[in-house]
Specification:
- The chain has 453 residues and is α+β, with helices and mostly antiparallel strands.
- Helices cover 54% and strands 17% of the residues.
- The chain has nine helices and twelve strands.
- A five-stranded antiparallel beta sheet has the order 2-1-5-4-3, with helices on both faces. A five-stranded mixed beta sheet has the order 7-9-10-12-11.
- A hairpin with a 5-residue loop joins strand 11 and strand 12.
- The longest helix is centred in the middle third of the chain and has 93 residues.
- The protein starts with a helix and ends with a strand.
């Protein structure tokens, strides 16, 4: 079964909240237990200290009693002094140890005079630090969690600062465990409520983001579909325009062919006139064939064969060839950098594009001069070269700027409208662009930009 995004979010949220509750309860239960034991130790320390001082003030207890615990008088003082501790609620056993860790009094008489101390380190730490310590069975490896052992140091003698003895108290862990369990339940409740509140808030935020993302996805899909439709419409429009232009270019000579054929039929007896008319029919057919070949050449510009080429020398050779073909009119000057500009291009296509731009510039201003310039430049963080052809002709009107590179669009009578579109196609094949602008001092400037690879 495929889960929805909200269902996935709910499952993950429940797992996270449950994990946090369990981890928090485990960590906090141990912390609560230790805090409660420390609080009990402090309370007992204050109680034992007050109790021993009171007994000492009434001459009922002294350090002599601890040293001579075997004497009947000392035993009576210890019995009277510490018996009250056995009546505290929740306490199981009471033992009193001197500074040598000998049990001098206990509610179990068989332990008196022995050193049966299970946790000697805890007793020594209480004597050394003069502070209460406790043995928490929950932190040990023992399975007996029923009793918690408290070791409370006390002092006898008004001016004494050393520990005289230690009271060992054994208390049942049940009250503490019950309190801890209640705390854990409360913690679970608070954590659960907090998790539910957090989940509801995050779930609403998730739904809002999910809904927004879904709407954005739908809009993007719709936009992509509309964009594809627009591209298709644009292609069909361009194709229709191209077909219309081709039909227009072929219609005129074909109409002439039909008219000439009709004249030839009427002049069937005049062979000289028929021969003249057939010659004109052939000329019109040749013009149609030449136009069709130009269209075919345009459709063949779909790939390039690149190789390392010195564009500087290529531009100079193209200018020389153009001047030779037109007898040096109009004059063409070239401006190139002194160092070579080598990159991977198709030299035949680049020469063809540059020749078309020079030819258009010469037709725009037959008196010239036409200026060809080559330069290295940085564009969009890429190294590139630019071929620029400038003339001093009339330029082009603003309304024609968007149509200059459209196939078959021309502003010159008799033009085919293919030169600039072919140059643009060649620039695109090389990963570049072509641009056109009117010069501030008159004329036009066309620039081919090709990245250096």
């Amino acid at each position: 079964m495929q889960l929805t995004d909200p269902q996935k979010f709910t499952i993950i949220s429940v797992i996270i909240v449950a994990t946090v509750m369990i981890a928090t309860s485990i960590a906090m239960s141990s912390l609560y237990r230790q805090m409660m034991i420390e609080r009990e130790s402090d309370v007992m320390h204050d109680m034992v200290r007050a109790f021993t001082r009171e007994e000492e003030g009434e001459n009922e207890l002294s350090s002599w009693d601890l040293k001579n615990y075997a004497e009947s008088t000392a035993r009576a003082h210890l019995e009277q002094g510490f018996r009250e501790l056995t009546r505290l609620p929740g306490f199981a056993h009471v033992r009193v140890l001197d500074s040598d860790l000998t049990i001098v009094w206990s509610d179990a008489a068989e332990f008196i005079g022995t050193r049966l101390t299970h946790h000697r380190e805890a007793v020594m730490r209480a004597i050394a630090n003069n502070s209460p310590t406790a043995f928490n069975p929950a932190l040990s490896d023992t399975n007996d969690n029923s009793l918690i052992e408290f070791y409370i140091p006390f002092q006898l003698g008004a001016a004494s600062e050393t520990v005289t003895g230690v009271v060992s108290l054994y208390r049942s862990a049940d009250p503490i465990n019950a309190a801890i369990q209640q705390g854990v339940y409360l913690l679970w409740l608070l954590t659960g409520l907090g998790g539910i509140i957090l989940y509801v808030a995050l779930y609403r935020l998730f739904l809002a983001v999910h809904h927004s993302r879904h709407e954005i996805s739908l809009k993007f899909t719709k936009l992509s579909t509309e964009h594809e439709r627009l591209i298709q419409i644009e292609k069909l429009s361009a194709m229709g325009q191209m077909v219309s232009e081709i039909a227009h270019q072929l219609n005129n000579p074909l109409v002439g062919v039909v008219n000439l054929a009709e004249l030839a039929e009427r002049e069937i007896g005049n062979q000289a006139r028929v021969k003249e008319l057939l010659g004109e029919v052939r000329s019109a057919g040749e013009r149609c064939r030449e136009y069709v070949q130009r269209v075919l050449r345009l459709s063949q510009l779909t790939s390039s064969e690149r190789r390392p080429t010195d564009v500087n020398q290529l531009a100079r050779d193209t200018v020389v060839f153009f001047q030779q073909s037109l007898g040096g009119h109009p004059p063409v000057t070239i401006e190139t950098p002194t160092e070579s500009t080598t990159c991977e291009v198709d030299p035949i296509l680049i020469r063809h594009a540059l020749f078309n731009l020079i030819h258009n510039a010469a037709q725009a201003d037959p008196r010239g001069p036409v200026v060809v310039s080559l330069a290295r430049e940085q564009r969009d963080g890429m190294s590139a070269f630019s071929l620029t052809v400038s003339d001093r002709g009339p330029g082009f009107p603003p309304e024609a700027a968007d149509k200059l590179f459209t196939p078959f669009f021309t502003m010159r009578p008799g033009g085919t409208g293919l030169g600039l579109s072919i140059a643009q196609h060649i620039a695109i094949l090389h990963g570049g662009t072509i641009g056109a602008e009117n010069r501030p001092d008159g004329g036009a400037r066309f620039t081919i930009w090709i990245p250096v690879t």
